[in-house]
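Good morning C.,

I know you're traveling, so I'll keep this short. The sequence:
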Amino acid sequence: MLRRIRRLRLRLPIPRNLVVPPRLVFALQLLALIIAVVIIRVADQSDTAPLAWALIALIAVSSLIRSLPAPEGLATLISIALYCGLQTMRTIQGANSFTEVFAGAFAFVLTAWFSRAMSHCLSTLEEEREQNARLVEELTARDKVTGAMKRDYAHQMLAEEIQRSRRYNHSLSLLMIGVAEWDTSPPLAGPQESARSLSQLVEVLNNLVRNVDKVARQDNSRFAVILPETPVDGARRVAEKICEQVTSELRLTVRVGIAEFPADAVSSEELIAESEAALEFSKTAALRITDRSLIT
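The tokens, ready to paste straight into the viewer:
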């Protein structure tokens, strides 16, 4: 049955690149409904005409059902089977109902085609709204200077990742990154040079981490990296690559503090505090990378 529905859906193609105003599509669908009703009215003078009209309305409304793969196709199959089957039985009994059969089939398919077009138009508008919403969310969540995730949004994402790690019993690590040359002064003289230097650092971080990892700006000169499903050993390897790459490309000394869930902390606030403490210890002891094992 599902295969037949999909085939019927393919027989009613809607060009994906077709951009039509929703009002025009709605007007065309309304016109198609009127034409379908008139076709039935002209072809069917018997008491089965109201049934055909009800089925036409069913096809038009069915396109709004999103839980089925092709609701208007299913409604069309049911309508053809019911109405045309009834007219075929009347023909067998002696009445000449071939006109009603073809008129009904045509009216049902016509209604289904325009209902599908309307459904396609509504789906396209919904997808566009969702894309715009995601774009706005991403723009508001990103730091304008570096493109890294903002602090508040990153804390929210960290809390969600901790919940996911707790649910699936996975490790999670947080890197807190600071640049030694920026501890007491801005990166470079002038806001434009500072912004460029910060952007370069974030670019290096993004190139070294996975797509599922998240780079966030913690404050003016510190950055955090969320590493889902990563124990402290894996986080240390990532931190070593970051230190080497930043030194090689930007000629800067990077210090990294590492905290792991659930070994070091069980909440986002505690994990951030532990990683910041590890970073401070790394600065004090002049170490590149520090985790809980070096502090305790």
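Safe travels,
E.
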